[in-house]
Amino acid sequence: MVKIDNIELPDFPLLLAPMEDVSDPPFRALCKEQGADVVYTEFISSEGLIRDAAKSVMKLDIYEKERPVGIQIFGANLDSMLQTVDIVQESKPDIIDINFGCPVKKVVCKGAGAGILKDIDLMVSLTKEMVKRTHLPITVKTRLGWDHNSIRIVEVAERLQDVGCKAISIHGRTRAQMYKGEADWRPIAEVKNNHRMHIPVFGNGDVDSPERAVEMRDDYGLDGAMIGRASIGNPWFFKEVKHYFKTGEHLSPVGIEERVDAARRHLQMSIDWKGEKLGVFETRRHYTNYFKGIPHFKEYRTKLVTSDESVDVFKALDEILEVFGNYEFS
Ligand SMILES: Cc1cc2nc3c(=O)[nH]c(=O)nc-3n(C[C@H](O)[C@H](O)[C@H](O)COP(=O)(O)O)c2cc1C
């Protein structure tokens, strides 16, 4: 069994990665239903939160059905991060996760996200003070290092553990790599093999098939897998991996009916959460992935992503089921 502080998880848990504009409550709910063991919110700006920016505050919404859930925050200023911890714990998440891995320029240039990989002392002291501030478990998500020449993740992980971090998720790329090349899981395995490490070490980056998840578990010996892109438009990925763990066999591809049903529910949950206008608008980005591979789909795709009223989107989904009811996904 794997434990994040007092949170008990099954062997080799599957974690839904924090993803900006993707990991919102409706998407997290769908992934949870399909077997995600822990879900995270997208990253939330500490500076936005302490200024009560409505967009940041809305990202704090979590629901009972998705527990255990982690709220992820980013920032580089100690005072702001501590105030953020106070605000975040009011929402009663199970975990507060610190983003020390975002490679995007506007975050990095303020010393936050992966920017902090240039100042490991600050990374450790921020974590230490945040741990002291709350009774909730603090976890960290980070990358291997700033660039190829500065990979010190074994030492970094140990220092984070020593100041009270309760789990670490490591994306097997450096900041310099952004999303290029292949994720390298070897340094993550080195972290796990450090005999002083006792907190869970989760691997992240390029887990895009059940076989790769097995590889991460068996060949690299990590404690669990954090899954990002493979789940976008495919919340069934968690179920697929778990089925493969159990049986060594692949599930048959999800059929059109289940996809349409997921898209409908996704839209409805988004409307319930954000209201008609935003709900319709922000669910658009998911449809392409739900229906990827269907030939001659353009007309329907256009309806899904240009209709402003939910009744028209629901109508288009009914039509898709009617027209492509016999389509078999591979
Ligand atoms: C659209 C998108 C948004 C992301 N947003 C975040 C984020 O808010 N916080 C974070 O820690 N990582 C974020 N990431 C990185 C992912 O959590 C993950 O580390 C990365 O995609 C590698 O995992 P994967 O190969 O399973 O996708 C994002 C990635 C994508 C594709």
Short description:
Helix content is 44%, strand content 14%. With 330 residues, the chain is of the alpha/beta class.
Note down, in words, how this protein is organized.
The chain starts with a strand and ends in a 7-residue tail after the last helix. A hairpin with a 2-residue loop joins strand 1 (2-4) and strand 2. It has helices at residues 25-33, 46-50, 54-58, 78-90, 105-108, 120-133, 153-162, 186-193, 210-218, 237-247, 256-274, 276-290, 298-306, 310-323, and strands at 2-4, 7-9, 14-16, 38-45, 69-74, 95-100, 138-143, 168-171, 201-204, 224-227. The longest helix has 19 residues, at 256-274. The protein is an alpha/beta fold and 330 residues long. The structure holds flavin mononucleotide.
Which descriptors would you attach to this protein?
330 residues; alpha/beta; 8-stranded parallel beta barrel; two-stranded antiparallel sheet; globular; binds flavin mononucleotide
